[in-house]
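In this section we walk through a basic example: taking a raw amino acid sequence and producing a predicted 3D structure, encoded as discrete structure tokens. The instruction is simple. Fold the sequence below.
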Amino acid sequence: MTQPNDLCDHSAVELRARMQRREISPVELLDSCLARIAAVNPTLNAVVALDEAAARAAARAAEAAFRAGEGVRPLTGLPVGIKDLNETKGLRTTFGSPLFADFVPDFDDAPVARLRAAGGIVAGKTNTPEFGAGANTTNAVYGFTGNPFDPGKSCAGSSGGSAVVLATSMLPLANGSDLGGSLRTPAAFCGVAGLRPTPGLVARGDTAVPTSPLSVEGPMGRNVADLALLLSGLAGEDARDPLSRSIDAAGLADLTPVDLGGLKVAISEDLGFAPVDGAVRTLFRDRTGAFRHLFREAQDRDPEMAEADRTFEVLRAVGFLAAHLEKVEQTPDKVGPNVTANVELGLTYDARDVAWASRRHGEIYRDFCRLMQEVDLLIVPGASAKPFPKGQNHPSEIDGKPLETYIHWVAIAYGLTLTGHPVLCLPCGLDEDGMPFGLQLVGRRWDERRLLSIGAALEAALQQIPGCARPLPDLARLTA
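The resulting token sequence is shown next.
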């Protein structure tokens, strides 16, 4: 499976360098992206709102900046896909909800404003489930987004649209957000890279529960270097986010070479508690077996995460009640089943439940910090199950065992959410059905540059190991 060597197929880092040398222009790059969107998006439904006129004006301004050699910033000239949970000034933003089907904001959300300030071109919105509630990308406004390796299967969610536009090179960069794996699971299902950063590294704007570390904004890309570049444009402090801090954002893109042979890593199939499909376990053992010799030491070890399911469910419910209770009470006919179910679950908890979950969250976090003082990296599967039919909301069982809730199948992701540590998702070949397989790499808090540098070194090594390289979708099949 190969891709045409169109301009849009090149990495964001390479494209920026070529624009800097004036070998190509931002206008030519945008034209290539728009052509690819026209070719494959009708099959996949990943780009759901497009403002071509505004994007072309921004591309012309970027071209002038390169020509003058002035005003060039980290993302100048690069088209970016924006998840439809982020407000975009002058461009339809629906949150996947009929309540906002015709909403056109007059301002940019904080991450979008930073991307524009860094020179990025907002090319279009990417599909997401209603208010991000769901690990399958579908909503009542735009419908389903298909997987680029099999349009009949799920691309996961909630950043599914962003993962699909990257896998098919519709755009070189896209943003995502992550609460319980919303960025990582789509990356694993679609064969791209994604980073859930340390909470506060990428400041959020106005949120219902600003003190919660569970939900974060983060970059998505086709490789680690592109992730680092986008992160350098996204990261930064914002007074509206009490978890944010001032950092050297530009330095995040400057990855340093890493000798994998000097690292001590832990490898866990299920974090000690998460349901994981037997086929996924087998493939994870095979893939890690193909590269674990690269490290100084690789030990099979689970973190301490007892009662992580209930801890996450209770704390997650607080956020859903804060953000969506009024919608469910006042306009129940316009709110989908996932959001409604989360609100109803939240109403079953009381202050004692929240107090218990808060205390247990702290214990899980501290135990994990001790683990990460002993190892450089933790490696776990990117997803607990293989891609399923897109018409199915979620897997109902794993290995014959019924799942307790619709989010239980992503426990392998939300367990890591509770740790507050950065998690990098890397593609690692295909499974036996020809669908992408991914890994989650967990690094130390506030050391994204080190994690990305390790990820880049492992990414390069995987390219040389049979069956472990990043897979590419069959574009001819998608455009037929």
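Looking at the output, two observations stand out. Residues 7-310+337-479 form a domain with the Amidase signature (AS) enzymes fold (CATH 3.90.1300.10). The longest helix spans residues 351-374. In the next section we compare this with other chains.
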